[in-house]
Amino acid sequence: MKKYLLTGATTAMIAAGAVSAQDLSGEVITVAGPFLSPESDNFAAVLDIFEERTGAEVKYVGSDSFEQQIVIDAEAGSAPNIAIFPQPGLASDMASRGFLTPLPEGTDEWVKENYAAGQSWVDLGTFNNDAGETDYYGFFFRTNVKSLVWYSPENFEDAGYDVPETMEDLKALTEQIVADGETPWCIGLGSGAATGWPATDWVEDFMLRTQTPEDYDAWVSNELAFNDPKVVEAIEEFGWFARNDAFVAGGTDAVASTDFRDSPKGLFDSPPQCYMHRQASFIPAFFPEGTEVGVDVDFFYFPAYAEKDLGSPVLGSGTMFTITKPSEGANALMEFLKEPIAHETWMAKSGFLTPHKGASLDAYADDTSRKLGEILLGATTFRFDGSDLMPGAIGAGTFWTGMVDYTGGKDAAAVADDIQASWDALK
Question: Cα-Cα-Cα-Cα dihedral of 222, 225, 231, 233, to 10°?
Answer without folding.
Answer: -170
